Description:
Elements: H1 2-5, H2 10-26, H3 29-45, H4 49-62, H5 68-83, H6 87-100, H7 113-127, H8 131-148, H9 151-167, H10 171-188, H11 193-205, H12 208-223, H13 230-243, H14 247-263, H15 270-278, H16 284-301, H17 304-316
Helix pairs in contact: 2-3, 3-4, 3-5, 4-5, 5-6, 5-7, 6-7, 7-8, 7-9, 8-9, 9-10, 9-11, 10-11, 11-12, 12-13, 13-14, 13-15, 14-15, 15-16, 16-17
Amino acid sequence: LNARYGYASAELQQTLERSISLAQSLGRQDALTTGLAALNTSQFVQGRTADSHQTALRALALAEPGSQLSGHAHFGAGGAALSLGRPAEALEHLDLVAQQAAGSMWLTVGTRPDLHSTAWAAHAHWLLGHDDEALAAARKAIAAGRSVGHPYSMAVVLAYAGITYQVCGRLPELTETVAELRELCERHGFAYYREWGLILGGWSRGDQPGISLIRQGIANLRSAGAFARMPYWLSLLADLQARTGQRDAARATLDAAVATGQSHDDVWWLPEVLRMRASQDDDEQAALARLRDAAALAAEQGSVALLRRCERDIAARGVRPAAAGVRPLD
């Protein structure tokens, strides 16, 4: 169900909830923990970030420490923590997954949790300012995916690597990865990650047809009820709109990204959205105020990469970051 219809599928959610109910009635704690860990992913992709974090913590409390099921629960807790704007906490959880779930197939969501977590950990590394570690994690996940030879896990690591290459500014790697991802999803009929390929592929084009691809991918995700990372996807659309001279459309898209992030507790990318929005402000003081807000949020989250971008923009306006009220991270 997950591979065919996506994590946000209502049918998938109902199946998982029924599994959890049966496990509870039968006193099957392992099955209950497995069901909760899988339900966490469905809630997460639906944009119920805070709920997904609580579900993962519930699974973690039930799992035996150090077990494979504990690794699965750490995966959910780490992914949710990242979107909640806690990259350091997320990395701790995701690093444990590779240790505790190595070599196991997480059949409830159809991926190898050690591969999936390594690919996701790349995003936490990048936010924390670990550029080299981010790229290394993405490449490690891809190499491991090729050695395993499991198509759905391969689609996952390619999709996550696409985001890693985009935030790191690695356009050739992004283009190559997206092409492989789209072909793989088309060949096997995979949902969800197919849309990542559309959006990332559209952004890498950098033109009006690229905007159409991004819009299609976002529309498909929304239609499927998949709202995770929506502020990030919308920011890619806004970036292309701004680069093609559509400033009003870019402003509207970024405002929608802020509202979406706040309503879904999906805040990890909001410092960047605010920074981008400031670049579209005509009033200098309004732009600087927005940059201060972006920098403060990035500092609060411990997001070194996004704070650096804010500091760069503040400095470009002839203001020292310290004078603008921006405190450097330790």
